[in-house]
Amino acid sequence: MVLQNYSVVSEFVLHGLCSSRQLQMFFFIFFSGIYVAIMAGNLLIVITVISAPSLNSSPMYFLLGNLSFLDMWLASFATPKMISDFLSVQKLISFEGCMVQIFLLHFTGGAEMVLLVSMAYDRYVAICKPLHYMTMMSRQTCTKLVLASWGVGFLHSISQIAFTVNLPYCGPNEVDSFFCDLPLVIKLSCTDTYVLGILMLSDSGLLSLSCFLLLLVSYGCILLTVWQSSSGGAFKALSTCSAHITVVTLFFGPCIFIYVWPFSSFSSDKLLSVFYTIFTPLLNPLIYTLRNGEMKAAMKKLRNRQEEKRSWYLKPGPVSAVIRNLLFQETM
Fold first, then answer.
1. Is the distance from CB of 308 to CB of 214 less than 8 angstroms?
2. 236 class by beta-carbon count within 10 Å (0-12 exposed, 13-18 middle, 19+ buried)
3. Tens digit of pLDDT for each residue in 22-72?
């Protein structure tokens, strides 16, 4: 898509999270650690799912691997820019960079919403229709669900950016956030965008609200089915579903609030944005996978294989002798 900017604004000024220099240094260290943890945790999950045949063939873990992949993108569209801006006096972003942020936010966000619904459907079939699970959740079905999530995310994002990119921007150019968010950017247009803004943002609000309601219905059916079958299983299911619902609420709650009431003057919109762009990609690995015994066992096997490979290279013999000689020559 060719960006056609007919305006005089060539860059935007981001206000960031705060203006205090002391807080900015603290946030720089804090969010740098958070970002490293997000990327390391989700990358470990993706590698483990790909490497372990038992996980790769499971519909649940196939979807979880795709969720971790999306989380890495969701955490990367604005977080590295935000972290570097903590060290900058003036936080500037080009017009093209601003449009790319809007596109990636709605692309990855929309895809993740649909994928979370697919994961809830997977759990619903596994618990409520266990005899038909492998038939209903075949690899072909899972692949279609993943492709559908990416397709919905792409169409949703294109529908947002196609109108935003051609609006006239002639000043002001200050965005009161740490990234270019759609409700804040279209306010800067030099034309009346109230009706257009309502239509565009209703699309995001409708997608967020409908996916959230579908998730609640799915988890409600799961809890009801398990409750009727056994009391012990109901307690375990309630513990698992409550953790899932907590993460889902942290992701969907801010989205619904921002895009259902987009023209409110709520001063904490930027803090709400932190939850679904940074904290949700961090919590997803902890809640969905790292608490799972099968996932932890697969990670342990992967680590043991890596240790065996290292020990084989260092084992006395002709191969290790060659390696030691090469290392010795490099240090000379």
1. no
2. exposed
3. 888 999 999 999 999 999 989 988 988 888 887 878 888 899 899 999 999
Q: For residues 284 and 250, is the Cβ–Cβ distance under 8 A? A: no
Largest CA distance in the chain: 76
Helix residue spans in the chain (DSSP H)? 21-51, 53-56, 59-76, 79-85, 95-128, 133-136, 139-164, 182-186, 194-229, 231-260, 269-274, 280-284, 293-314, 318-331
Helix (H/G/I), strand (E/B), else coil: 264: coil
Q: Indicate the SS3 state at residue 11.
A: strand
CA–CA separation, 236 and 214 (whole Å): 22
What's the token pair of residue 27? 């946030």
Q: What is the pTM of this model?
A: 0.82
| Dist CA 181 CA 103 (whole Å) | 10
- The string of pLDDT tens digits covering residues 206-225 is 888 888 889 888 888 887 88
Q: Which residues pair with 94 in a beta bridge?
A: 11
**Adjacency order of strands within the sheet including 92-94:** 92-94, 11-14, 174-175
> Three-class SS of residue 320?
helix
The phi and psi torsions of 14 (rounded to 5 degrees) equal -95, 135
At residue 97, the pLDDT reads: 93
Structure-token match 């409520």, residue found = 128
Residue 196 contacts residue 162 (beta carbons within 8 Å):
no
**Cross-strand partners of 175:** 14
Q: Are 178 and 16 in contact (CB under 8 A)?
A: yes
Task: Dig out the tokens for 205 from the structure.
Answer: 């609000």
Q: How many CA atoms lie within 13 A of 208 on its CB side?
A: 24
Identify the DSSP state of 167: S
